[in-house]
Amino acid sequence: MKQFFILTALALLCFTCEQEEYAFGDIAAPQNLVLEVAVTGQTGDAPFGDGSGEVVFTTTADNAITYRYVFSDGSEEIAPSGQLTKRFNQVGVNTYGVTVVASGTAGVSTTTTTEVTVESTFSDPEVLGFLTGNGSKTWYWAADEPGHLGVGQNDDDAELNFYANYYQAAPFEKDAADESLCLYQDELVFSREGDALFYQLNNFGQTYFNGSYESVGGGSAGFDFCYDFTPANAPQRVQLSSAESFVVDNGVPGQTRGTNLIFSDEGFMGYYIGATTYELMSVTENRMVVRAVQGNNLGLAWYHIFSSTRPTQGGGDDTDYDNLVWSDEFDTDGAPNPANWAYDLGTGNNGWGNGESQTYTDRAENIAVADGLLTITARRENFSGANFTSSRIKTENKFEFTFGRVDIRAKLPTGGGTWPALWMLGEDYATNTWPGCGEIDIMEHVGNQQDRLFSSLHFPGNSGGNAATRSTEVPGISTEFHIFSAIWSPETIRFFVDGELYHTFTNNSNLPFDSDFFLIFNVAMGGNFGGDIANDFQESSMQLDWVRVYQ
After folding, report:
1. Residue where one domain finishes, among candidates 67, 98, 120
2. Is 119 known to be catalytic?
3. If you ran DSSP here, which 8-state letter would residue 449 be given?
4. Taking the CA atoms of the chain, what radius of gyration do you get in angstroms?
5. How far is it, in rounded angstroms, from Cα 373 to Cα 333?
6. Do 471 and 427 fall into the same domain?
7. Does some domain include residue 17?
8. In the listed set 73, 89, 120, which residue is the last one of a domain according to the structure?
């Protein structure tokens, strides 16, 4: 019996070994490793390619399961098929080392190395100037702006893939919870040496981690949290390259600048999301918006907004203005008070430069004061060669001012294609062509996005679809009166609805927001922002109860 048990045990042991060997398969290193390199655009006249820096690598081997590429610029890529397209971004003609590791069963691998010489001609000197100023500049989280940290979808839905449509942090939201108190202390320092860009993150020893990456910081909280983690303590090289993203593919002017910041040595911009490449959506001397795809979730894109001045709680500006200097209560029936208002008439240049469909008139059918309200009505009718009529009034040469608070109580029109606006224009627009003169849009609304309110600023580098814009939901925006406000100071321009702050813009003397502006009220139809006009639209009105300006 004892011998029987011994023989049985030996049989089971042998069977187990055989099964394990069978499951594991034959252990064989990849053989016949072949690496082919094709520099995009390479010809006899262009031996280093077409300047894109793009190279296509194709590796094959017998018994290989996957391939890993290691480059001398510090990057690595996994390519299960063996084919990889890489863009080298260092400007000029440069030679890079390439190592390919072909992995077989049980992790056994075979390696080959080569070099590739390729040219990259991409440059964006304006970005270098904005990021580094006279040589070095420090950037901070724009914590006073809604959406300074936000996340949205990363796919081919062009209607939604260019902004943080999933979540936008409220102003100073991350100071409201102990787990994220470290975020706003970040200092992002950009510097340059000639055309070379460098970066250093000073986070005073603590990093705000996305919960998916907390293990990098040694944490296990299960959600976003600050952990002791210090990035590289020496300036890291940053390469500029042409962006390739879903937003670029949209082909919409102003949605993105189209320039990538590629950080070496695992550099990141304050919030750890496993990304080292950031797409510049927009950048000026004082404001920067970037987009980065989360490392382990390609369906998510994070948005960060930075300012060249560190904001303080309350927007960094306690100027609220309380001395009433001008108003119109619209308490006299008839036409708007000619002492306060003038008209813009006609269709303007190409629909006032926006492809709009209306002609503006001064007729009572389009604008009138009655029962304490100013009413501007857009109508479907053939008039002076246009298919719609409306009205547009302004205080130009009657009331112009620099800095102050504007409050406007209004109820907005409805209908697809309507585009009401309460806004201000720099009075020197005739000699300082738009957007050089500056534009402050206190309130814009489009009937095709009912219950969404927009505020925007236009200035050089931020015109049209590239305006500095924020939006917020306002249920009942066309059924009830609301108060739309802007507080404009030398330091900030802040936008409110019913007293709630939803957009803060950092102002400075380099922008055109330090001289006289005048008010403009209008209802446009269609155009670049208004969009398609509903087939059943006949008429709708914007009503204003009062407008008041304080200094």
Report:
1. 120
2. no
3. G
4. 30
5. 9
6. yes
7. no
8. 120
> Which residue in the list 439, 473, 500, 539 is annotated as catalytic?
439
Residue 463, number of CB atoms within 10 A of its CB? 15
Secondary structure E strands in 351-463: 358-360, 367-370, 373-383, 386-390, 392-394, 404-411, 418-426, 439-444, 452-458
Give the β-pairing of 386-390 and 358-360.
parallel
- Check 444, 473, 491, 539 and give the catalytic one: 444
Mean pLDDT in order along the chain per 10 residues (551 residues): 43 41 63 95 92 92 93 86 86 91 88 94 88 93 90 92 90 67 90 92 91 90 87 87 90 88 93 95 92 89 93 62 95 97 93 93 98 98 96 98 97 97 97 95 96 92 79 92 95 91 83 96 95 96 98 96
Answer for the pair 120, 269: CB distance below 8 angstroms, yes or no: no
Q: Residue 229 carries which side chain, given as an amino acid letter? A: F
Which of 407, 369, 406 has the alpha carbon at shortest distance from 391? 369
- The most distant pair of C-alpha atoms in the chain lies apart, rounded to whole Å, by 118
Specify the pTM. 0.52
Check if 439 is active-site.
Answer: yes
Closest CA to 261 of 284, 277, 244, 282: 277
Burial tier of 436 (Cβ tally within 10 Å: 0-12, 13-18, 19+): middle
